[in-house]
Structure formats: C-alpha cells, structure tokens
Amino acid sequence: MSIQAQTMPRDHDKLSKEAARWAARLQSSDATAADKAAFREWRDKNPAHEAAYNEFASLWGDLGGVRLPENRLQQIRRGRTLKRAGICGSLLVCLVAFGLYQNGYYDRYHADYYTKTGEITHITLSDGSKIALNSDSAIRVRYAPDHRDIDLLRGEAFFTVAHNADRPFTVHENNLSARAVGTRYGVSTAHGDLPADVQVEEGIVEVTSASDHQLLTAGQAAELDRDGMLNIEKTDIGNETAWRDGKLVFSQKPLRDVLASLEQYRTGRIILLDDDIGNLQLSGIFDIADTDQALRSIAQRLPITFSYATPLLVIAHKK
C-alpha cells in the first residue's frame, strides 16, 4: 500500500472530526459571533472543509449561517442517515460533549437550585431574600456571616433582596458581578449572541466587570460588551422581566432576538434559514407555556413561515 493510500484515511478522519466539532459548536445555543467568524475562516481554507461540513449541515440544518441548497427543507423533512460510520461516531462524541453542557447537566450538578427548559420557579432563601429563576437556569448560594453571594451558573434570575447593610448581597456571573444592599434586580448570563446583563427595578445596584464599574438605578439596565465595558440604557424592566409572570413582552424587537427568547422555553432549536428576516421588527405578548402558539402568531404577523423539520428543529424562512 502506498504512503498516500495509508495517510488518506487518517486525513479524512481528522477532517471529519473537525467538521463534526464545528457542527456541534454551531449547534450550541452558546455559539458566539466569534465562533461563527472562526468557522468561516476554517471553511474557506480548503474546499474539502466545506464539503465535509455540508454533510453535517445537510442533516442538522443551517447551523452557522452557511448558504444551503434550494431543496434544503425537503431534505430535512425527508430525513437522512449519515453515509459513513466514522463521521457518525465523531458527530455523536462531539454532540454528547456539547449536549451535556448545552442541556445544563454540568451547571445543574454544581447548583443549589435549577430549572429545566420551560420551567420557572420561585425560591425564598434563609434571610428572606426571594429569587425568581427563569427557564433553564441554575444558581449556587454562598452565604456567610458577613456576605451573601449568589453564583448565576446559567440562564437568568430576578432577585428581591432582604435589606441587611452588614451582609451585602452580590450576584456573580462569569464576567460581571452585581452588588446590592436591599433592592429588586435581575441578572442574566451571556447566551449565544446575547450579552450578559443586569436590570434594576428598584434601588441601586453596583455592577463591576473586569474593565468597568457602574452604579445602576431603578429603570436602568447594563449590557456587557466584548471589551468588558458596561453599556447603560433606560428600559422597561417590567416588560423585560415579564417572564416572572409567565409572559414574554416585546416592543419593536428584531425577530432573531424574539426567537432566541422563545427558544429558551422549548426543547430544541429554532433556526433562521434566511438571515435578512432576522431584522424584521416585532411587538407582542406571548405565553411562555405555549411557544408553538407564539410561532403561529408571529407567522400571521410577518411574511415568514415556520416548518417543523423534526419535533426538536423548527426552520423559519420566507413565505
């Protein structure tokens, strides 16, 4: 056997694993714009990269903004099996690893309280502070005589803090912390392209990141940008945190942001097949308990259609 014949299977296996990792990464709801840019750079280096990735894209749908052939939806509806066992094995390994993280098992293992997808719960802590924990979220409580610390491991939570000046209450997210003495405020972790943020309904909250430090007052929200700076703006906190009452309220929000929010309350993915429809503006009030009804309502208001490729995969595309 020639050296070329010996190395080709290894090269193909390596390429398949790389393509599988990209498919798994872009499938994750935590995939960032930087991930997508790095993927495009990898894809454009060699035509073989795009060909290998397309085998996964044809099964899993539009995972990374890759332009798909015109018969894409028909192929997804019909369903396909992978042609090579090696690719299947690589994909399963990568998807299991990312799936454990994406589905929250890692964070739940380390949490004192957590919620599953579509579940919202209310917690009262030992000091009387109250927490509303949003869908697919997890927190760890670290109380001591001189402080009250909460680690937001995943998702979003809203805090009604019992006043105690001698025991400051601080919520820690990966890249920021929000400290209060007695107030009502929410904190969410970064999710996909959506940044970590803090929203203050009542009182004053001290927000700190690696590069910035700000004091927020009632009606203000701060988003953490890529440089670690806090961008502050006035917002309707009641609308932004309406999930506490089982509702989602949007006022002239881009469709991509609306779908990202709805996706948090259902198992599976909602994929935008056409990038430009993601900029369509939408206002409305939707019931968290029935996201399918929300999608039907959106389809009636906007020039789009939702196709259920599988029970876990919904494709949004132009009518």
Automatic annotation (TrEMBL):
Keywords: Membrane, Transmembrane, Transmembrane helix. Residues 112-206 form the FecR protein domain. InterPro entries: FecR, FecR_N, Ferrdict_sens_TM. Gene3D superfamilies: 2.60.120.1440, 3.55.50.30. One of its GO terms (molecular function) is sigma factor antagonist activity. The chain crosses the membrane at residues 82-101. Residues 17-57 form the FecR N-terminal domain. This is Iron dicitrate transport regulator FecR. It comes from Thalassospira marina.
